[in-house]
Amino acid sequence: MLRLILQRLLALVPLLFIVSVLTFSFTSLLPSDPVDLILGDTGTEEQHEMLRERLGLNQPVHVRYMQWFGRAVQGDLGTSFFNSVSVMGAVMQRLPVTLSLTAVSAIIAIVVGVAAGIAAALRPRSWIDRFATLGATFGQAVPNFWFGLILAAIFAVNLRWFPATGFTPISDSPWDWLRSVILPSIALGTSSSAAIARQVRSAMVGVLQQDYIRAARAQGLSARRIVLKHALTNAMVPVVAVLSFQITVLLGGALVVEQVFAINGLGTLAIGAVRQQDIPMIQGLVLVMVALVVVVQLATDVIYGLLNPKARPS
Amino acid sequence: MTGSSTTPPHGPRQPRRLLVASSLIATMATGVLVLLGLLAVFADVVAPYDPLRQNLIEALQWPSSSHWLGTDDLGRDVLSRLIHGSRIAVIAAAEGTAIAVLLGVPLGLFIGYRGGWWDWIVMRIVEAIVSIPGIMVAIVIIAILGPGLHKAMIALGILYSTSFLRLARGVVLAEREEVYVRSARVIGASDSRILLRHILPNIAPPLIVQVTLTVGAVLLSEAGLSFIGLGVQPPDASWGTMLNSAAAFMDLNWFLAIPPGIAIIVTVLAVNLLGDVIRDSIGRGVAIAAKPEATPTHSGKPAPAAVAEPVVLPRLKNEVLRVENLEVMVGSGAGLPIITDLSFSIAKGETLGLVGESGSGKTMTGLAVLGLMGAGLRTTHGSIVLNGRELRSLSQKQMEAVRGNEVAMVFQDPTTSLNPAFTVGSQIAEVLRSKQGLSQKQAWARTVELIDRVGIPRAEERARAYPHELSGGMAQRIAIARALSCNPSLLIADEPTTALDVTVQQEILDLFRDLQGEFGMAILFVTHDLAVAADICDRISVMYAGEMVEMAGVDTLFSAPLHPYTRGLLEAMPHASDRNPPLPTIRGSVPRPGSWPTGCRFSNRCDFRIKGCEQRIPLTGTDRLVRCIRADELALEAAQ
Amino acid sequence: MKRRIRDAILSMAIAAGFGLGVTAAHAEPEGTFKYAEQVKLITMDPQQQSGSGVPYLRPVYESLFERGTDGKPVPLLATGYEVDGLDVTIKLREGVSFSNGEAFNAEVAAANINRGVELAIVEGLKTVDGAEAVDEFTLRIKLKEPDPAIIDSLCHTGGMMLAPAAIADPALDRNPIGTGPYVYNKDESREGEVRVYTPNPTYWDKDKIGLARYEVWELPDDTARLNALKTGQIDAGNWLANPQSAIIDRTPGLKLVRGTGGLNYHVIISDREGTVVPAFADLNVRKAMAHAIDREAFGKAVQFGLAEKSFQPYGKGDWAYDPALEGIYEFDLDKAREFMARSEFSDGFTFDMPSIPIYQSRLEALAGFFNEIGITMNIVPQEPGTLARVSRTTNYPATNLVWATNTDPKFLALRYIYEDAAYNPFKAKPSEDLLNLAKEGLESVDTAIRAPIYQEMAARLAEEAFLIFVTNTPILIGVSEATANNPSVVYRFGEDSINLRGLKAND
Predict the structure, then answer these.
(1) Mapping DSSP to helix (H, G, I), strand (E, B) and coil, where does residue A17 land?
(2) What is the pLDDT of residues B519-537, one digit of tens each?
(3) Measured between CB atoms, does C244 come within 8 Å of chain B?
């Protein structure tokens, strides 16, 4: 297992490198001159030149990239163009917020998706199956932010069960934290749970027809044990592959859903950075997000290996 | 951003109903999309008001006869804005998808064809883009291009081009292999010309599927980007921007959020459903050709009147299993019989062979005893008595207790009948623990013992192996060990040697004999291979089209087969001595359930057929049974 | 020039301050007060501050003067001043030190003023040539031109005093050090979320520290801010006239305080010489736009009846207000179309308008009005808090801002009229009339003399129609019932913040 992780980690190095080159060169394409953006039309030619030098903008792109990359590997993603806030600090401060949403919605998506998928697969063409399939088809068509608006209107504004806006850090109060993330997470997780349910159902239907399931039945093992252990373990193999993709989707979706609930996460930071064209912030955000996705992929790879012995290097 | 992960979701189902349902869905979905297209084109004509015409005095009104969907915060007619929003939705979907296709497909074809560094670099970039959350990619591209509908669509087009790129590349790579093989024979034609000619037909079906997925995803993404203010800019009416302003006025008029939300959902739903139908129909062309018989319909003849034959089965000494007049049906309603009037019995220590071509119902008989026939199948008649207990009257739970403890089964393919996710030892130990209540430690010790007993060296080590790490013969030994772990009185072996090498077959058969000597269980040995049956069975029962046609002791059967079908089978058996003359085979194949001849079910393949064969033929005899009105003549002929 | 000395030592205020210090028992600061700000914090450097967001600065920075409850300047870090032609001599308070221990004296004050002049962002210092220390506690400011509003300017960011160490800090925008009653607590603050302030142990007027902790929450989302007020997460916050403030106004248990001074929302045609949008050079077009706006409906629907129509910079009751200007650009679509037809741009044209979320619906409404006369206005979103900054660039041919009605009218020239005015990025040449009026207005400090000059200026502005005033709303502060009943809560005159000196927590 350790070897698998190491192998994977090594494979990620070029990916992160390419992402960093991509984002750096992409953001260097930004149409406006950052110096003009920062100083506005105020400031003398001299001030412009000084700022240009301070930001290193008078150097060629590849030199800037090398400097940036050199600092980035040490965890220093630079400073925002518009204030003295370090990009790493700003991102790290918002990260728990977005991670909370992503994690809770992923849990919801997995639990609901797997349960619905199993229920549907156990009785193909039953009303449960039809209901679950219909629900999954619907779930994938509902925009997460709209669902968030509706949930907030019903459960926060009308029934007052949950706060309509804002985020409580888990360190302040785990209970309030849960209350603050539950509605956005449901809004966010629904479409993923639909995708997972479809995946689980088809994998489960396939697995339940496998010989080893019949063999386990023939051996008199209980139905529950067969479904939850023998079938699910195998059905989760393709599902896990989808999972890492779904978590990427959730991470992206969180950026939008945050706006509905006025939650100050990476999304707010990203949208602000894009509007201001705060290049270091955009670069840092992309890199951190890719790093997150990479961690998720690594984790799912490990789970994949645990579930599927054939995938392990022997 | 969602959607591209979806896979064909549906398992086997009934094609006819499915076709009706899916064509209904397709019609409805197409209807919705056509309507959307018409609204987009004729928005100016259809919309009751100018979508930008504001009337601040009539702001935030609820639905009324003059404004069917009410008015927004600036008193603009919501219905009109919704209709004009459909235009933006259509433009967005068309533009985003077109850019994705036009960018992704040529690039994918190019790198797939060119290969080498081009391929490597582009694919790494694609991987990098794919590893960033889609919306973030779009946001970064919008940062460069600036906000707005067309710019946002360029961003989404770039984002989704990655899936088209991978698709096109995949098709090229697959075709490339094939073309090289073919072009080795057809000298003269240039590779690239052949390649191009083959790519187009092959890329079309997945491309269509991917387009529908992309259209849905683009619609959702456009709405999302407009919602966060990076897509379509107000005051233009897009469904996303309408939701954006609705969000600010939720407290005052929540209804504002409903129409655009429903519009998005219905449109995306229509696109996705249409995509599902297209994907299914593209996929079905393959699936149906592959296994048409998997889904029998209930359109066949109604079930024959269940007048049970008198059972002519003598009671055996130490009888373990006794099956009488077993009838198995498939399908709902009246159902279609697939096994009729089957009666047999097995005694302790005895091996009964169940022989016949595939489709004759032998495997189903074994599963019927276990009560594991699968969905749509049920025993409708007869009795199955195991160790003096009627199994058909038992509850699910009680049957669970019987399985494993009193009866166990070994399946044809050992590599698939063991769960690939667990070590083989743990799969045996699990049975011991859950069926016999052994502790973890005891179960493991017994497992190792059993593995050792079935002739696997270094049992302790092998117990920790996964199924894929074992050879077929070894895996079958494990399966046998598991089946025997609770010392059942009946072992059903379903073609246990068919999937194995010839040399291994013999070893496994020896193992069965050996274990029977030691454990004394009865064996119901299902096989199509008469040679194997001859080797291991005491008695053989020949099955054809869901019924038993002949049963006799193994020597008798081989020396004097009475049923023309048995004879056919025996003649088709290869003999080591004379290999040269081609094997005579029985013409035709086993008729499928529902198309059985009315009288003798073998009559349409039988060389001895006479007029009397059109009647229902009973099973006759006592010790040896046969179902043929000309059995006596054939017996005489055989004796000659 | 007539020499005029004004004795402005307000002994009353000082006596009150010292008197309290002697007689009242020293009360320990306790409790927390939470304020919510609608704009995002851009910088905590007052001299770089171009937009709103002053509530983030007030706890830390004190200005030389502040506005009393009647709007007149009273000394804060100063004790008195004297104006002699272009020389402004200011006596400074003795015994004041910055929270980092550095002493506050004339040297430091002069350095502050000179930095502000050099940075040239604070418009109140535009008339200042430089400052110097006369003696340890006497500061002399030299003006470039007569400025009757210089002391007003020193009540705001232009008069805020930064510690020398803070000025030297390149990260000053997040490390403010001033003389104020509270210090910025960086560790407990969360970027983009909340700024925490704790008592300044070296404060010169300890009795005025009534809180153990003061928080300013950064809540740009109007609904989020409303929810925070409803749930008690905040005690007070500022709002514009929008659905959320309207909800506060009618929610039992909440109160919408209409502050002194108004926010006069107006459209600025920056490109009035037609560099980018030629149509803007056409007076007919500008007048058509002014007539196309239904201010009545705008105030009702977009600002929920919290606003009144506006046709000039000043609010009703201000000394420069001219009732004669009421209704000069009354909503008249026919007239507007007529003007458009008369212009060379009768087919209409398109321009871009920067927007921040809080102005979104205002701009949509304006876009709807302009659409009626064939003008397409594209709304381009900006990051909240950056509208003022982009308005100073040539990125947009027009912009929209609010004018605080209690600002001295001379700032009209500094902002919009002069060729180098802050919000004249295209360097449009002002008309002779406006230039002369701007000059005249500076020659006296007597409002009776100045009023007719500025009324004339407002009329000229209306005629030239490059500033299109829409509606005027009072400064709105939403508070909880407890805050409304808290006697220590004093709203700053003409500013969307609460005076922190003496503020105590709600019971």
Answers:
(1) helix
(2) 889 999 999 888 889 989 9
(3) yes
Quick one: DSSP state of residue B325? E
If residue C399 lies in a helix (H) or strand (E), which one and from where to where? strand C398-404
**pLDDT(B273) > 60:** yes
Separation CA C305–CA C290 (nearest Å): 20
Q: Please report, for chain B, the start and end positions of each structural domain, with discontinuous segments joined by +.
A: 16-290, 319-406+488-639
Q: Which residues of C touch A88 (CB under 8 A)?
A: none
Neighbouring subunits of B (3+ Cβ pairs under 8 A): A, C
Question: Which of C352, C379, C390 is the best substitution to test chain B (most B C-beta atoms within 10 A)?
Answer: C379
Q: Encoding tokens for residue B612?
A: 């009397």
- B629 touching C (Cβ < 8 Å): no
Q: Which of A101-110, B171-180, C463-472, C494-503 has the lowest mean pLDDT?
A: B171-180
What CA–CA distance (Å, rounded) separates C99 from B135? 45
Count CA atoms within 13 Å of residue B443 on its CB side.
19
**pLDDT given for residue B256 in this prediction:** 92
What ranges make up the beta strands (E) of C30-175?
A: 32-37, 65-67, 73-75, 78-84, 87-92, 128-135, 138-143
Q: Determine the Cα–Cα distance for residues B451 and B455; give it in Å rounded to an integer.
A: 7
Contact C173 A41 (CB under 8 A): no
Look at B11 and A219 and tell me if their CB atoms are within 8 Å.
no
For B192, counting Cβ atoms within 10 Å of its Cβ (0-12 exposed, 13-18 middle, 19+ buried), the class is: exposed
3-state helix, strand, coil in chain A (%, to 5): 75, 0, 20
In this complex, do A42 and C120 lie within 8 Å of one another by their Cβ atoms? yes
ipTM for the complex shown = 0.89
Placement of tokens 């004009």 in the chain: B84
Do the domains B16-290 and B319-406+488-639 sit in the same CATH topology, yes or no? Answer: no
Answer whether C382 touches A (CB < 8 Å).
Answer: yes
**Secondary structure class of B407 (helix, strand, coil):** strand
At A287, list the tokens.
């890199």
Q: Which residue of A has its CA nearest to C170?
A: A84
CA-CA-CA-CA torsion sign (C279, C283, C284, C287): positive
In sequence order, which residues have a C-beta less than 8 Å from that of residue B151 and are 6 or more positions away?
Answer: B142, B145
Q: How far apart are CA C101 and CA A141, in angstroms?
A: 62
Out of B56, B233, B248, whose CB is closest to C294? B56
The DSSP secondary-structure symbol of B315 reads: P
- Name the CATH superfamily housing domain B319-406+488-639: P-loop containing nucleotide triphosphate hydrolases (3.40.50.300)
Distance of CA B67 to the CA centre of its chain: 51
Cβ within 8 Å, pair C223-B53: no
Q: How far is B94 from chain A (nearest CA, A)?
A: 18
* Percent over 90 (pLDDT), chain B: 30
Q: How far apart are CA C140 and CA C137, in angstroms?
A: 10
Of A30, A218, A253, the CB nearest to B370: A218
Using omega within 30 degrees of 0 as the cis cutoff, is the peptide bond preceding B235 cis?
yes
Q: Are C220 and C40 in contact (CB under 8 A)?
A: yes
Two tokens, residue B268 = 């995306």
Q: What is the mean pLDDT of residues B11-15?
A: 46
* Averaged confidence pLDDT in chain B: 83
Name residues whose C-beta falls within 8 Å of residue A4's C-beta, 6 or more positions apart in sequence. A301, A302, A305, A312, A313
Residue B277, min C-alpha distance to chain A (Å)? 12
* 8 Å CB contact between B104 and B165: yes
Cross-chain residue pair A143–B223, CB shorter than 8 Å:
yes
DSSP 8-state code for residue C161: -
Query: Options 1.10.8.60, 1.10.3720.10, 3.40.50.970, 3.30.470.20; which CATH number does B16-290 get?
Result: 1.10.3720.10
pLDDT digits (tens, 9 = 90+) for A81-103: 877 888 998 999 899 999 999 99
